[in-house]
Model the fold of this input.
Amino acid sequence: LKVTNWLVRFEQDISDTTDLNTNLIDILAKQQKVIEEGLENAKMITTLIKDCIALHLQSGRPMAKHDLLAICKAICILKGIQLAFHHKKGALIPIIGHLAQYNCCVVLKMLSNTKTKIIADVKKYSEKKLDLLSAVILASNCLNGPILTNPRRILTSICLSIISTALSAEDIAKLLMLTRKLELFTKIHALVDIRTNCEFLYFNRAVLGIYFNNFFESESSNVHELRHFFSALSDSFTFINKCKDDEKRELLTKQFETETYEQFKSDFLDRICTEFETELRLQVHSDLQLDDQSPFKRHLHDFSALLTSEPIRFNDRLISIKSYVEEYLNEMAYNLTTIALHDWKTYESMLNLAKTKYGLEFVRSQLPTQTLEQGLDVLEITRNIHVFVSRYLYNLNNQMFIEKSSNNKHLNVLLIRHVANSIQTHGFGIINTTVNFTYQFLRKKFYIFSQFLYEEHIKSRLIKDLRYFRESEANKFPFERAEKLCKGIRKLGLTADGMSYLDQFRQLISQIGNVLGFVRMLRSGALHCSSNSVNFVPDLDDLTEVSFETMTSDESLSADTVTAGQNLDSILSTLNRNFTESTDYFKLLVDVFAQTFRDSKNYHLKNFYAILPATTYNFVEHLIISKEKMTRKNKVGAAFTDDGFAMGVAYILKLLNQFNDFDSLHWFSSVSEKIKTEINEANRQSALNANSDVKLTQTTSLTIKRLENLQKEFHLLEYSLTSSRILFKATPESVN
Done:
């Protein structure tokens, strides 16, 4: 506490700046006092440490553990004092100059008074007084200048010793005190290093293991204290460097450095790595039922402070705790993944957590991508395509499928790399198989699609809406008509789950779009797999003109070599074909159904574009409700994406060649106008009732928020539909 108090005052007083109106003498006196107090503290602590060790050695008594740890703490405090002086070295240099100048002035004043007395006593002139006068003049000349050098200081001391015979006891004591201060100021930095030197630790290395173990187990460990302790250990190298034999000096230095590092590594670094690994495992598996992890019941290290600390300097070695932990985790993750490939995800999660939370950097494991955990298997999805499209939601921009709901605490996803892994496992032939299954699935779904549009209640309402649109002067499909159609279809009946026929029709379109999204992802996965395979091929275009079989035959090499060249030619040819060929599966799926859809026998399908306003309105309302459930505790039915609907709408419009018909409705423009009108009306009502009723104002604000949310979802649907049309080589003339 005493040293801590001194450090605070030292930091404050040494950094103290003042203007000319302040008494500078008081400032210098305060700075002199705090400097002297620091030196006195250093002297007291180092004496205490050395005496304690020496007395135990002299008496042959073992030192108690708590006493030993107290000595280590005192060593760290001692190096803290040294560090404080070194940090303030720039500020101390002018202060020491001022203090030396001030003390010199005081001594010069005393010498001047002494000189006056000697000269005044002319009657008692003698050679002794002449010597005194000469000593005063010489001492004054030595003090009159920059900070004393050693020769000038010695000469000044001799002169003052001669002068002391002419001074009173009080003046001698005062002069002695001032000269001691001058001597202190001339070698203050050397004095600090001497009083904080801990080279005695070289002969007391048994303390290292106890200190490092205690530092690991202590709940109040401070990484700066560890840095101070290593600074104290580094003083031993100054002692070792006094050895005149170069070979022995290098040997002793290497032995001490290695011994200390190995002790630190075994007693602290390895243990902190194991502890950190355990902590990462507990956090990654926090969804499991673990023991009580309360920080009040178990010791938790401050890993953040340790891992963000600067490297510790120890002679010529920099000990970085962060780098050591990174290497340990890299090695651990690699070794354990090679032993149990199915656990790779756990170790990746641990490394990602360490990177995100503590800023650690890791190298890639470079393990092969073919692992036992490949995500969902494409072949299994193809066999159960009807289950997959109903349980998963498609995201158009990220090309991924995400599970709707699950009994587990996580949702499965299907990414392009999962598809690439499956293709790598089963071969490229799986693509054609998947397209065939897709065709069979679409046939069944389009049969239900046709039945819905052929139903008399639906068909008559669509014809009625189209007639109203064509006869009206407005060139935009009215929002009210779509809303009315939604309510009318709902009146036809509901399922046990509370779904209307229009909800089921929307789901049907989404499932059709999901299966097309799956085909698109399959093609992207194939290209991803091919690109990974051709990474090590220099240039596919040049290799088409090269035949390794011919080259090995021309060189008259062995039959096995020629066969190897033939196999290489076959592999390169396959890679080139898979990478460059681009079968348009969307075009195949359009061509196979387009003729049937446009046949006069299926004339009832021509009204499909007329039901899209009501269907899109139903879709947007459903998606808003699903997104709102994301923030609730009960997340049944929650979702944030369903681009399968936009994909399905674009595909069916392409089959029926109704893109222009749908564009003629100007549906999205009509929606924007309707919502803007309602928002303006709500704002007007809010302005009128601003000071009348608080509840009415809140209701109006909620209405505006709901309308803005509705408008945003319609815009997102419009963008998704535009993106989907691009995939089918059809773009709208304009997008509002």
